[in-house]
## 1
Amino acid sequence: MTASATPRLAPAPAPVLPARRVRGRTATGEAHRLLPRPLLATVTVVLCAMVLVPTLYIVLASLNTDLGVASGEFWPGTFSLDSYSRIWTTADLATGLLNSIVVCGLVAVASALLGTMTAYVLVRYTFTGRLTILRGLVGLQSVPGTLMLLPVFVLFSSAGNYLGVTVVGTRWGLFLAYLTFALPFSTWVMVTYLRGLPRELEEAGRMDGASTLRILFRIIVPLSLPAIVVSGIFAFLLGWNDVLFASVLTRPETHTAAVALSAFGATQEGGALPVYSQVMAAALISAAPVVLLYLLFQRYLVGGLTAGGVK
């Protein structure tokens, strides 16, 4: 007599929670374990105050009079916009803003375009010296700008003497200097981003008969817009915030906004009544284009800094 085998029932699968919710709860729990809620709120308030209080003081000082700011008033006794109207005559800010927008805008566009093309070659093709170039891009970021100031000035001066072309003191000379430092960073940003793009998209384009340039500008560039915007904005900021190279490689008619603001603030130090209100107004006007740039491209900035490819 053969004993019949008792059928075994498979255990019911455990319910699986959505991955996003699990990750969110885990990250939140870890954050709460690292910093208790009261301490986290305190740190957040302190950090926000460190940024907002100086900004509020600059805004209030720009709406105050020079005498009121010099006397130490935090809240203006009378609100006035005179500093915003006087700054255009007391400081050569209009010329500086125009030079900065032209030079930094061209640097941003050129570095983003050239960085994308260079990164595409470095990521998608294998050739001798490829790894050396990639390592050099990282190594160039560690070279301080002060170390390169004198060699760049001598190089530009020598080029002007030998070629008979004026480089020092011109906008395009400053453009070349900024592009030299912005291009390696833009290329490395694009290399990091393009590594996350699937090759299948390019293969599909090649099957349809698309050339390399067509694939680059019709497939790669639209998919890489967040990273391109990030690299362009960082290149723009590199030139906008620079004072050292702009002070040496320009003359008064080609001074940037940073140099004009620095020179205006320095000339007021020995005055009987420093025009602090006008200095604050000039600082806000100089920062306005950068703030506007962030507001316009905020969506691309978030995507370029957080995404590593196409989902």
## 2
Amino acid sequence: MIRDSRLSATLHLLLHLAEQADPIPSDSLARAMRTNPVVVRRLMAGLRRAGLVASEKGHGGGWRLVRKLPEITLLDVYRALGQPVMLAMGNRSDAPECLVEQAVNASLDSAFREAEATLLAHLENVTLAQLNAEFRARLSVRKQVCGLEKSDAE
């Protein structure tokens, strides 16, 4: 099954942008993501329309964040991507007159609505600042494990 990873990829891009004061070109972001610059530009276009990022052309140009990390929720990013379908599962609709299909679909519809509402609530309550803090914590642990950062004990 092919999964839509645009939200995950876009959040990844945004966290890279958060780490740099200067604009980052699409090709640099693409290298970080191991993808094509066209993919980056497509993802960023919706974010630009939503007022989350801006692009600057020419030498020294690229993408930059327009809003601060605590102001951007994962739901904002999801909406900027055009609200892609969240759940890969759906109801069978080959025989809408079938009472069995109606009963099954009614039950599944309720479960799908609950799952989507839960996921949307989570996206609304998580900011890019929180994701960035999680990244920073993981980076700190890695540096300590690799001996790249002096410990407080020294």
